[in-house]
Design brief:
8-stranded mixed β-sheet, 34% strand, 6 helices, mainly beta, 6-stranded antiparallel β-sheet, 3 domains, 6% helix
């Protein structure tokens, strides 16, 4: 998203600059005549004016006046057509300062850019005879009264070669807009900006344009902090499923707080891309107990890089609509940060209802929340689910030749065959390779494949589900994998089988206890396994009805195994029960990216290199 400010700078070469605007009403065109000269440097030799006609047409405007009623957001389509044979450049600008409470900017494929009121931002547009260029201006009026914006257009013609900076022109790149600037300028027709809370400007609606892709995960922007323009995000889906605590409803000191801010390979923060660059590491989270969904007092606050939404923040997301239609209702069960009492924590149910009674020893879905720094800028996207905003520093291109082991948890990979050809990065648990998991449970002709876990709660390559994964799944004749896929898989991976019962820490699935990080001796070796309870990507990534229950590898006890429900929460079941299967494998260290950017619409295509 490049915006260019045109500044005239004359060198010893004589330059001729003609800037003229012609106002005529002919055949529906709006135009006007006036001389507008860009900044002159003190060493200018001469300015020569001549005749250059341009047609300016603004749909939905009166002349060059953009009128917007109080509380409205309107988009104006601006068409500039060039009937001349000479190449020229245009520069929109706003005449005078914008009224208080009124924002305006260019709508581009990358978002919204708000230029300085006096100078504008140059949109370079080269064309031949009859060429036309179409732009959009979006104006939002929160001033409390009807307002108008006067639009000026500067037209410049340089008789020398416009493309060469050495001809005396200086082209200065202006910064891409910040996340807050883009969101505050508008979030689409199915969303709105709610400024009723002085501490947070909320995004509301049924499906606003507030999708953001960062560090391999799809996020929703929830609010903007007016004090520093940081932006609160929450993941669109449940990244994992864990118990909140052993029984306490306090966020501070809970398993939840630990998992979210765990900087190791086992936790959420440790798998985010350059968190110090993107995230407010000292974010403050309101974890005050309340029996109401109204705004809680800030009597209990916790400072962490990563937290959860409080229940008030969730309910503000559907302000003006119903909870079932609010954009944060993802059809799954997930934890909030808010205690309801000494025994229960607020959660959100599958229909979007804020529930007030879940035992923190239960396992529910986790939607991590972060605050983006105010300096983070948007470089691509339009905020829709199919084209989410991309952030400066997290918008990699031309990744061909990059090792997959350098990429981030959650990114998509084209792996496998047919309807089972999409996987996601979990982590780099073994250091040199890449652990991946199928993006959803396996299917056969559109129906989920189901399997009993085994005769007991211990996974191995020879128990019921282990035999399926290490034989049938690896058999190319069954259509799950190709020979090329199988060649990329490590022959032997260690799978951790630690027992995590009710109210147990996620760490016990891998370690002997929660403090010393000594690996459990309960392990097995196999080529293919399953995710642990509480492991990254062990959540649900679709609405109820498009997913199914599936097994984890983690025993609940000697007789029961944890499974993840279709609604995103988890519970223990008898291993003879039949549930879905999400294979997890470790890819070799020499697997390389050949195409794609790791998003759902452009998964990495990979190959094994020598």
């Amino acid at each position: 998203m490049k915006k260019i400010l045109l500044e005239t700078k004359f060198s010893k070469i004589y330059m001729l600059v003609v800037i003229i605007l012609t106002l005529l009403i002919v055949g529906g065109y709006y135009s006007y005549a006036m001389f507008t000269v860009s900044k002159e440097k003190s060493n200018a030799i001469s300015i020569v004016t001549g005749t250059l006609s341009y047609d300016l047409s603004i749909d939905g405007a009166s002349g060059n006046i953009l009128s917007v009623n109080s509380g409205e957001t309107k988009e104006f389509t601006v068409t500039l057509s060039n009937p001349n044979s000479r190449i020229a450049r245009f520069n929109f600008y706003y005449v005078g300062a914008l009224p208080d409470g009124v924002t305006a900017g260019y709508v581009t494929g990358d978002g919204l850019s708000t230029p300085p009121a006096a100078t504008g931002v140059n949109l370079e547009a080269d064309g031949s005879v009859g060429a036309s260029n179409v732009y959009k201006i979006r104006v939002t009026n929160n001033s409390g009264s009807n307002a108008t914006v006067t639009l000026g257009v500067q037209v410049g013609l340089d008789y020398n070669d416009l493309a060469l900076p050495s001809n005396g022109h200086l082209f200065e790149e202006m910064s891409d807009p910040t996340v807050a600037e883009v969101l505050l300028a508008g979030v689409g027709e199915n969303g709105a900006i709610n400024t009723t809370d002085p501490d947070q400007t909320f995004i509301t609606g049924t499906d606003p344009n507030n999708y953001i892709w960062y560090s391999g995960k799809l996020w929703r922007a929830v609010s903007i902090d007016p004090a520093d323009n940081s932006v609160k995000l929450v993941t669109q889906w449940n990244i994992s499923t864990i118990t909140y605590s052993s029984g306490s409803t306090a966020f501070e000191g809970s398993y939840m707080e630990e998992w979210l801010n765990d900087t190791s390979v086992d936790g959420f923060l440790g798998n985010l891309r350059e968190p110090e660059k993107f995230i407010k590491m000292d974010s403050v989270w309101n974890a005050t107990l309340t029996t109401s969904t109204s705004k809680p007092e800030s009597t209990i606050v916790v400072t962490d890089a990563v937290g959860l939404l409080n229940i008030y923040e969730y309910t503000m997301s559907y302000s003006g609509t119903t909870y079932s239609n609010g954009y944060l209702n993802n059809g799954l069960y997930w934890w909030s940060i808010t205690p309801y009492s000494a025994s229960y924590v607020w959660d959100v149910g599958g229909n979007g209802y804020a529930g007030s009674g879940y035992n923190p020893a239960s396992a529910y879905g986790v939607r991590p929340s972060i605050n983006l720094k105010s300096s983070v800028r948007i470089v691509d996207g339009d905020g829709t689910i199919d084209n989410p905003y991309r952030l400066n520093g997290d918008n990699d291109t031309n990744l061909s030749g990059t090792l997959l082991s350098s990429r981030y948890s959650g990114e998509y990979i084209r792996f496998g065959s047919g309807e089972n050809n999409l996987y996601r990065i979990v982590s780099h648990e073994n250091g040199s390779g890449t652990k991946i998991v199928s993006a959803e449970p396996l299917k056969s002709e559109g129906t989920f494949v189901t399997n009993a876990f085994g005769s007991n709660a211990t996974f191995s390559s020879t128990n019921t589900i282990g035999t399926f994964l290490n034989n049938d799944y690896l058999n190319t004749g069954n259509g799950y994998l190709t020979d090329e896929d199988i060649a990329m898989i490590e022959d032997a991976t260690t799978w951790y089988l630690g027992t995590a019962g009710s109210g147990a820490s996620y760490k016990l699935a891998k370690y002997t206890n929660t403090t010393d990080n000594i690996l459990t001796s309960s392990t097995t070796t196999a080529k293919v396994g399953l995710l642990r309870l509480g492991e990254l990507m062990a959540g649900q990534f679709d609405r109820y009805g498009n997913n199914t229950y599936y097994w984890t590898i983690t025993p609940y006890s000697a007789s029961y195994v944890w499974s993840v429900y279709s609604t995103g929460n988890a519970a223990s079941y008898n291993p003879s029960t039949v549930y879905g299967v999400r294979p997890s494998i470790n890819l070799k260290s020499n697997v390389q990216i050949v195409n794609g950017d790791g998003t759902l619409n452009s998964p990495f295509e990979i190959q094994l290199v020598s």
